[in-house]
Write a structure and sequence with these properties.
It contains 26 helices and three strands. By secondary structure, the chain is mainly α. Strands 1-2-3 form a three-stranded antiparallel sheet. A hairpin with a 3-residue loop joins β1 and β2. The chain is globular, with a radius of gyration of 23 Å. The N terminus is likely disordered.
């Protein structure tokens, strides 16, 4: 796999935003944000009425006003792009440092965006139908080893009514483990109250409720932090193939887009950390012929699957791409080495965990997969309806910058451009054999491969000297950030705003 990071030139042409670029950006901006706002004004339900919909925000003007706070972070990212465009290691270092500040601004803005944001996040993380299910579960666990050993026969055998929702029953217990560790590493104390405890006490919260609400607020910080850290591995992943400027663009698009921002803080954006890290190790090992790196990818696959079974689908897409490349270039020996070391890395984690605490992770993954199918039948959605509306809903949550990148490619598929096609194929298979609703949230996991695949179809993003390309990259970053802000302003995707206005907020 000899994809070059550096290409000497782009045949002497200046790569700047031309008329076709503006047309592409404008068209896809309308087909995403424009269509969403048309649906908003018409109050067209985004989903199945009476069963499951992504609700619209009733505070659109306030949210749009708060969106203006995103401008400084965008300005920092523009500066970072100009630094990354210059050839030389020192410029990359400076560009990454400045870009990290800009991406931190995106993360903090996302956490702060909803009006009464602490209350909204706390509500989501106390609700059994959202990530609150994991926090509630963790609060009942005394011995985590015993909990994991008995998870298959203990928790998975309970009914949806007993669990007050499907979240624990349809997911592996990794998020419960994360919540459990958070509660021990960052405990609530009324004797020496921290920031959140003082805030709640000053807001006249009942003393008996302070601990639960404070833990929910702290868990929101942890989930947002995990999501933010995924941007680091998003850059490292893209840097395996692209120039610093191209990698910076991919990192921004993978971290900050409508499909992630609308569900922060949440499990699905947070697990981009393990997904990006796994993909980085895999492709780094494949390109360098290093079994240590691909072994690390196998280990991360197991760790990530403990958070969500979707990791297996993402790893499957990366493996299919390796198989196709094996047939084209590197031969069977390299493929056996890569796959074998990944399997060894996975076995090391599986055996290590079993010897340490006695948890059979494979058995749990298999049991959760079977229980997941049973839970879907309990939900009783209109499967025919969702077969037709599920995919369009996901497409509405894709960044217009990503659409524009795909549309602007000329000259057919390039080397490694198959990554985009393979990812789309795996997503299509998942759509046909799996679930078709809640795709904007569930398919966040595929955004890294989709974005990297689109970028790999643009040879200019591999040019080491990106000064001629920086105008296009800046345009795509700005369009992505503005579109994401407008998208998040229009939606109350987690229903927290809606529930806060109801007396039965947890129903």
């Amino acid at each position: 796999m000899n994809v070059q990071r550096r290409t000497p030139s782009v045949q002497g042409k200046k790569v700047r935003p031309a008329m076709r670029v503006w047309w592409a950006v404008g068209v896809f901006l309308f087909l995403t944000v424009g269509v969403l706002y048309v649906l908003y004004t018409r109050e067209v339900p985004l989903g199945e009425s009476g069963r499951f919909v992504y609700r619209y925000s009733k505070m659109l003007q306030m949210r749009l006003g708060r969106g203006m706070a995103l401008v400084p972070a965008m300005g920092v990212l523009v500066v970072a792009a100009r630094l990354l465009a210059r050839p030389g290691r020192k410029w990359e270092v400076w560009g990454v440092m400045v870009g990290g500040v800009g991406m931190l601004g995106l993360v903090l803005w996302t956490w702060w965006l909803p009006p009464l944001f602490l209350q909204q996040h706390a509500l989501n993380l106390l609700s059994p139908s959202h990530e609150g299910a994991f926090l509630i579960e963790a609060s009942q666990v005394r011995d985590m080893g015993a909990y994991l050993r008995g998870f298959d026969e203990g928790r998975l055998t309970k009914s949806v009514e007993e669990m007050r929702g499907t979240r624990v029953l349809s997911n592996t217990p990794g998020m419960t483990v994360a919540a459990w560790w958070m509660m021990r590493a960052w405990p609530v104390s009324l004797d020496e109250p921290g920031v959140f405890e003082r805030y709640l006490l000053e807001a006249n919260t009942r003393p008996e409720d302070v601990a639960a609400v404070a833990y929910a607020m702290k868990f929101s910080v942890v989930l947002v932090g995990l999501w933010g850290l995924s941007g680091v591995f998003g850059y490292l992943l893209a840097r395996e193939f692209l120039s610093p400027l191209g990698a910076g663009l991919v990192a921004v698009l993978v971290l900050f887009n409508p499909a992630t921002v609308n569900f922060v803080p949440g499990k699905d954006p947070a697990q981009l950390l393990t997904i990006n890290a796994m993909l980085w190790c895999w492709f780094r090992g494949v390109r360098r012929g290093s079994g240590w790196w691909t072994g690390g990818a196998g280990a991360l696959l197991v760790i990530g699957t403990a958070w969500g079974l979707i990791h297996i689908w993402v790893a499957g897409a990366a493996l299919v791409l390796r198989i196709l490349d094996c047939g084209m270039r590197n031969g069977k020996r390299g493929f056996v080495r890569d796959l074998g070391s990944a399997v060894v890395g996975a076995i090391v984690v599986l055996v290590g965990v079993y010897l340490l605490i006695g948890w059979n992770m494979v058995g749990t993954f298999w049991a959760v997969g079977r229980r997941y199918e049973e839970v879907q039948h309990w939900i009783k959605n209109d499967r025919e309806l969702w077969f037709f509306i599920g995919l369009p809903l996901f497409l509405l949550f894709v960044s217009p910058a990503l659409y524009a990148m795909v549309a602007l490619v000329r000259g057919g598929w390039k080397r490694w451009g198959d990554l985009f096609a393979v990812t789309v194929g795996v997503m299509g298979l998942a759509y046909l054999v799996g679930i078709t609703y809640e795709l904007p949230r569930l398919w966040v996991a595929f955004v890294p491969l989709l974005t990297l695949g689109a970028a790999l179809r643009m040879p200019a993003l591999r040019v080491r000297d990106g000064r001629r390309l920086v105008g296009l990259v800046v345009l795509l970053i700005i369009v992505n950030c503005v579109a994401t802000a407008m998208h998040a302003a229009a939606l109350d995707a987690r229903e927290s705003e809606y529930r806060l206005a109801r007396p039965t907020m947890f129903n």
